[in-house]
Amino acid sequence: MKTPEPLLNRRDFTKAAFLTGAALATAPTSVFAADTAPKRIRTGVIGCGSVSGSYLPVLAKSPHVELVSLCDIRPERARKQAERFKVANHYPHIDAMLAGVPFDFLIDLTDMQEHEKINRRGLEAGKHVWSEKPIANTLAAGQKLLQLAIKKNLRLWGAPITVESPQFAFMARTLAERKLGRVAAAHAFYGHEGPGWSSFFYEKGGGSMPDLAVYNFTSLTGLLGPVKSVSAMMSIVTPERTIDEKGKIKVTEEDNAMVLMDHGKGVISHVQSGFNYFNPHGHDGSGEQRHTIQITGSHGYMGMVGYDWAPQGVELATMKSPKLERHVTDAKGYIWQLGGALAAESLSTGRQLLVTPEHALHVLEVITAARESSATGRRIKLSSTFKWPVVS
């Protein structure tokens, strides 16, 4: 991976705009507990590439985090981030990190194919773990990780954190109050032209679903409930990609996906994602004004303005009030890269998060079931579930 410019995020591969200005200056502190002397959790971060440029500023500002060590298989990246954020220790490999200065909480920002192995190593070493998505490569492997965490009395969480936004909470309450009547259908989408700074997005275990659709899967299952079965079609639109440090590579995982999900009780949702989506509104989220999540019922319609990882509001219309009205325009400190800091806060204060490993594993099963459905032409039943509703 190419070493990113400061604050580069995975959603915007050509410019670093999302975390500039007041968003970073004010957002994280508004969601941290108002504790005059919070316990600081000794934290190690593994993976000092693109996403670390978005996570580390938030972690460094959190009153619940003590950044102890950084790690990356490219030692220069770990050294540079350690210098930038004044972290005393940096290591070239997880073995050296785990044998080095003690810490209690591991944040995994490595390539998605490595998460399962890294998360297992962290848990085996007695560390609480926050993982970027996905937690593991298969549902069975992810369930074993969770069993290991429970056995060792450790906490395990996985991104994304879309269920933590105030916009998600508004939508969940609106559905619970039956303002849309009988819910029938939902649609969500997220895509861009595809990253050029690393090949792992296009290799086995990568793809547009675990990188992009995972946000929509998390939001829709959080709003509509666990999925009973999945039908999907996917394709590779661009069979070759040019990657910064490798040149031309073959694409082996989907860069175009359409997934139908049956939530039971007649509710059907649809998610589309891909790496071939030109977006005139830009990829950093600030210019997106479309309803990227839409929910329709017998008496109303609701749409999330902007992406669920960077929501700008929710528009609602009902039979009683048919003109679309915008609600919840204040993010109240929610930003997508807040997960590690929220997990540290939970470890520090005991405050429980809406994000759960069971939900992350259910979304992982949606992804693997969608691939099976596309490969076989069959509708695939799911076996996992999670506590729902997410918002009481």
Features:
Rossmann fold; nine-stranded mixed sheet; alpha/beta; Dihydrodipicolinate Reductase, domain 2; 392 residues; 23% strand
Structure report:
- The protein has 392 residues and is of the alpha/beta class.
- It folds into 2 domains: 22-158, Rossmann fold (3-Layer(aba) Sandwich), CATH 3.40.50; 162-381, Dihydrodipicolinate Reductase, domain 2, CATH 3.30.360.10.
- Helices cover 30% and strands 23% of the residues.
- It has 10 helices and 17 strands.
- It has helices at 22-31, 52-61, 75-84, 94-99, 115-124, 139-151, 166-176, 208-224, 339-349, 357-376; strands spanning 41-46, 65-71, 89-91, 105-108, 128-131, 156-158, 183-191, 229-235, 240-243, 247-250, 256-264, 267-274, 291-297, 300-305, 313-318, 325-327, 380-381.
- A 9-stranded mixed β-sheet has the order 16-15-14-13-7-12-11-8-17. A 6-stranded parallel β-sheet has the order 3-2-1-4-5-6, sandwiched between helices. A two-stranded antiparallel ribbon has the order 9-10.
- Strand 1, helix 2 (52-61) and strand 2 form a beta-alpha-beta unit.
- Helix 6 (139-151) packs antiparallel against helix 10.
- It is globular.
- Residues 1-35 have low confidence and may be disordered.
